[in-house]
Design brief:
2 copies of one chain form a homodimer. Chain A is built from 8 helices and no strands. Chain A is mainly α and 189 residues long. The radius of gyration of chain A is 18 Å and the shape is elongated. The first copy, chain A, binds a DNA duplex (30 and 30 nucleotides) through loops.
DNA sequence: GCCTGCGGTTAACGAACGTTAACCTCTGTC
DNA sequence: GACAGAGGTTAACGTTCGTTAACCGCAGGC
């Protein structure tokens, strides 16, 4: 069954899909309500506002990406292993939650200031998690350059919603291989 | 001076910047008018509708990316050289027109059916331009996989609006190197 | 067996949107 | 020097939006 998540989670899930398809401003609260089987203003029994739905969604993603990323880095025994673990994690997340990935880099600008700054700060920390490992591997790398490399790797991996023709396992292997290649790590196969 | 482009081009340019910042649905015709120094409905002296502005913008980008890409491939003497030329071209375009890059992959879904299909078709052709060169280089590559690789490379290169800390020439070199690395080509330096 | 509160409903609101209408002011043409 | 058209203006339109208000049914605790 599984469609008996509590309403709140169900709304978040469905709203993510709609936001990914049409953008935050392209989706009305009526659309969201209809998609979960309630109608319009009932949404306000669960959230303070439409902006709140987006905020909760984006803060949750950013936190999840960061904390799981930190854990995987902590368990790695070399910068190369850490980077491989980060790539695997990001690929896994992007393949499992393509809608969230799309919303995260398309609609964060629609957040109210407070939530926006929280999300930005978490994202910066996540970028730096990658950048630090890159600089441990190559101490000549400047911080700016390492951050730009992390962003580029995210862009590569986050492209997955744009090309869903491949089976998931093939896509996972392809994206991980390309990401490692782009960062100058030798791919396994 | 140069700010005496004809109004039409000026509107397209300014609208691209606004759409990139806030999304198509997050920008009103009043916003666009204000940004070019006229007010609201005056825009209709130059375009049939707000959708028309977006359509013209996106069709122009897609055509430009494709035709210049085709020319660069035609002048290359090997698949490797063709891919390097495509990477250089895409990087150059993304650095010169970050707003257009953002709008192109964020707001194409807001297009009316006709324009949307035209843009999609041009984009498919551009993807295949890349995919064909990848398959000439490695005949074992399936079409689906080659297309996914092209999309991933676009994602990497198109990440440039998200990280503008580096000087442009350093960014050009970084993105080109990473893109080639992701595609399995040996980078020059 | 009442009552409280959760999760719904429909109706209504003011604001903002895209667009149209009506009008004005130049500028170049015959 | 009348006139047409290009490119502006403000006022006004209908629609849609996010949100609030008022109301209702039902489950669980006392």
């Amino acid at each position: 069954m599984e469609r008996t998540l509590d309403r709140r989670s169900q709304i978040l899930e469905v709203a993510a899909r709609l936001f990914a398809e049409r953008g935050f401003h392209g989706v009305s609260v009526g659309d969201i309500g209809r998609a979960v089987g309630i109608s319009g203003p009932a949404l306000y029994k669960h959230f303070d506002s439409k902006d709140d739905v987006l905020a909760e969604m984006l803060v949750a993603i950013s936190e999840r990406l960061l904390t799981e990323g930190q854990e995987r880095v902590a368990q790695a025994h070399s910068p190369d292993a850490a980077l491989a673990a980060l790539v695997d994690w990001h690929v896994e997340f992007a393949l499992a939650q393509p809608s969230l990935i799309v919303v995260q880099d398309r609609d964060w600008q629609s957040l109210a200031v407070e939530a926006r700054e929280r999300v930005r700060s978490l994202q910066r920390e996540y970028v730096d998690l990658w950048a630090d490992q890159l600089r441990r591997r190559d101490p000549d790398l400047t911080t700016d350059r390492a951050q730009a490399m992390a962003h580029a790797a995210f862009g590569l991996i986050n492209s997955t919603p744009h090309s869903s023709r491949l089976p998931q396992s093939a896509m996972r292997e392809l994206l991980a291989g390309m990401a490692l290649g782009s960062l100058g790590l030798k791919s396994l196969s």
